[in-house]
Design goal:
473 residues, 15 helices, 7-stranded antiparallel beta sheet, 20% strand, 5-stranded antiparallel beta sheet, alpha+beta, 18 strands, homodimer
């Protein structure tokens, strides 16, 4: 259905972005993201520098019926950045400028390839704060965060990417540019295209500029580790913390296998750990109040069965704990080939979900490691290829994943909380929504991208690009 | 283009909702909202009780090509609830049940006609908090809040309606029901239909159930009034408050005319007032900390020219001030016929906007009263029909409004912050967006509502229902 990249097209791409920014040889970096071991090389990688260049590239591709997959830090965990139909990898790596930090109005304007951590550090220098904090913040880009509506541990208190995006500049496949929102806390001028684009994984438009809300930087933080005999006690402690009207900025959960994987990889040891370990962080602007909050968090944990609670005494200890926590993803994935899921349920149902994951994995003879954001109900499940044959892996995993998703949905949850549907979850979308709702999404896709050239093979189950006419009307 | 409501259709409506819930006689209440003096009677009003009944009514109307305008509290200030093409007023008044307050997961599930204040009070009884607080909270409904993405004074700290909606049940014109999101803090499973529907003013679907996030109730509040010699000093005080890393929950601005209108209407007096008066409220869970914050807010105001700052000593004084503040809208509107605008700019540009409004009004020989949410840049401008002839009113107002919008847009603002485009702003939408972006919105509308029966005459400029085929592709 798509056309191939021809030498003539390559010449036209060179004319737009310059010969040095059209890559035909070293396509390996553009062929994968952080999703399992997938490799989908594009036919060509293009590195535009401006919205105008993006518009010209995309229009050219649209006219030629060549797929375009926008790429940022390629840290997607759902295959969002994979060029599954080949075509053009539209790498935005050169659009990496922080355009403005507007401290007076409390907004930042950035190009899509700004690294998340780079923005965090830049605004923190000025006493400001950007909330979303995905584990890959050192290498993921804000454009990628927008594409997937990235979350992270602070979502509990500070929300996810969508809660911080107030405006976008985006290029449609036609080459037309739309500008949505702005440095505005309130805006109801027409349909909310900003929020429709956030989380759309580059399938509707290519985002080339992002306006982000900022808030004053919370001055103080207290970080604790609480070991529990089991997850149910840990979850009860979280409820008790909320009952005390404390909203921590993070409540992270790690099972024993996740803790051990991180410790092994970093050759370091968590100062406190149990069958279920919670990492709790509170923040605020009043140190004395924060001390009291930290004490009350500790009391809540002890009341629910934590034998002791470790409190980081300084920034160094805090960093140490967080480095270990952030290494879990990579550590677990380094143990063996894996299949990762990103389930999310109402917070209080998390113990049931963890129990279901354990039961399902055990029954299928599979090894699962779970960790994630117990404060917001988001559990990362890694099924590891340990002690199974290739054949067992191939047959058991899809069946187990399907069962885990069934249990997740039955708990009022959804199949992906922050990684996106992407390439690896799309076959499961019909579990989440009835056909007429998926068809509605297909039609939205067609409004933006009638030829289906933008990041094809993502979100929508197969067939999405093929139906030429709408069902409705 | 639309068909009329026939006796046969009325019979079928009666069969769906019961004869007692089909109103043909007393249609006056269904003919207006809070927007100026507009009257657009529907041909029939229907009061369904369930999602299923809504679905059957809407499908019937869609098949018969009869317009359907969903109505809640009819407090819209942009004509959002007006039946401008007649047809069916779909009053959701009987769907007014708080389905669930889930204190464990911190979510509420409500039917669309629950009064905003009723939910606030219900959750506050349980130590929980729902953030959005539109001035009309005593009579507006949560469904209407969702339709318009209602804001209010607390948006500064707590965001607007969209930031609290995590899930919807909605009926499409086909009668199909979609379920989006849920009791989930994170969810990226497919396109964000939830956020596309919030603020879509009932033009895409009829929302029949809403899932709302809750947070622990802030225990303490301190409310202050600070009079300033001019708005520039007041705005500087706001910047100084933020620089001190204090995020108040409200910073309200009233010009002298707004203060006087409220005082006259309520026969009461603000305990402090100036050429520009700020109402500042801080909240939190630690009373001592809050006292300190209130002191620092006071210091910031005095440093920027407030001769003194009034601090409400108890809940009674606080209520007194807020009652006066909330009465401004009605008070100003009772002075004379009026035209209200709902401009929004980046916060720090507000003094420029206020100056522009004054300059433009004066030059056109018109009287304008301004008040609003200085903390989030949202200014309500009321142009009053005082000392002008009918002819002058008819010609001067549209010209003045257009100029005010031009100045607003030039300041990086938008033409409506929280009232919605509705009926009264839609002719100005082409000032806000280029034609291709409006056409994109038209195509989104057509995906949901191909026959254009849902709340026709709203948001999109004329012609939106008439183009049978998309421009794209």
């Amino acid at each position: 259905v798509f056309s191939k990249v021809t030498p003539a097209l390559v010449d036209r791409l060179r004319a737009i972005v310059g010969a040095g920014n059209v890559e035909l040889d070293d396509l390996e970096p553009y062929s994968h993201d952080y999703t399992e071991d997938f490799r989908f090389p594009p036919e060509v990688a293009v590195r535009p520098r401006t919205t105008e260049e993006v518009a010209r590239v995309v229009r050219l591709a649209n006219d030629a019926l060549v797929p375009v997959t926008a790429q940022g830090g390629r840290t997607s965990l759902s295959g969002g950045a994979l060029c599954v139909h080949g075509g053009i990898a539209l790498s935005l790596e050169r659009m990496n400028r922080i355009v403005e930090v507007d401290a007076e109005n409390l907004f930042a304007v950035v190009e899509p390839a700004v690294i998340t951590q780079a923005l965090q550090e830049e605004v923190e220098k000025r006493g400001l704060f950007y909330g979303p904090d995905p584990a890959s913040r050192g290498s993921c880009t804000l454009g990628g965060n927008v594409a997937h509506c990235a979350g992270g541990p602070r979502a509990l208190k500070y929300g996810v990417t969508k809660d911080w995006v107030t405006g976008l500049v985006a290029v449609l496949p036609s080459g037309e540019v739309i500008r949505t929102g702005g440095k505005l806390m309130k805006n109801v001028t027409g349909y909310n295209l900003t929020q429709l684009l956030v989380g759309s994984e580059g399938t509707l438009a290519v985002v080339t500029e992002i306006t982000l809300k900022l808030i004053p930087l919370p001055k103080f933080r207290r970080t604790m580790l609480a070991p529990f005999p089991d997850l149910v006690s840990a979850a009860r402690a979280v409820t008790r913390i909320f009952d005390a009207r404390i909203v921590p900025c993070c409540v992270e959960f790690m099972d024993r296998a996740a803790v051990e994987a991180a410790e092994k990889r970093k050759a370091a040891s968590f100062p406190a750990k149990g069958a279920a370990t919670l990492l709790v962080e509170v923040d605020g602007n009043d140190e004395a109040l924060l001390e009291r909050e930290a004490e009350r968090v500790g009391e809540a944990c002890v009341a629910e069965g934590a034998p002791d609670v470790f409190l980081a005494m300084d920034e160094e200890q805090r960093r140490f704990i967080w480095d270990l926590r952030r290494s879990i993803g990579e550590a677990v994935k380094s143990l063996a080939p894996y299949k990762e899921e990103d389930t999310v349920v109402p917070r209080a149902r998390l113990p049931e979900l963890v129990a279901a994951v354990e039961e399902v994995s055990r029954r299928h003879g599979l090894t699962a490691v779970s960790y994630g954001h117990v404060g917001d109900g988001n559990l990362h499940v890694n099924i590891l290829k340990l002690g199974v044959t290739e054949e067992e892996w191939r047959t058991r995993v899809p069946a187990a994943v399907r069962e885990i998703f069934e249990r997740t949905l039955a708990l009022g949850g959804q199949i992906t909380g922050e990684h996106g549907v992407g390439y690896v979850q799309r076959e499961f979308l019909p579990m989440a929504y009835p056909e007429h709702q998926i068809e509605l999404m297909r039609e939205l896709k067609r409004v933006f991208d009638p030829k289906g050239i933008l990041n094809p093979g993502k979100i929508l189950p197969d067939g999405s690009e093929r139906r030429p006419f709408g069902r409705r009307g």
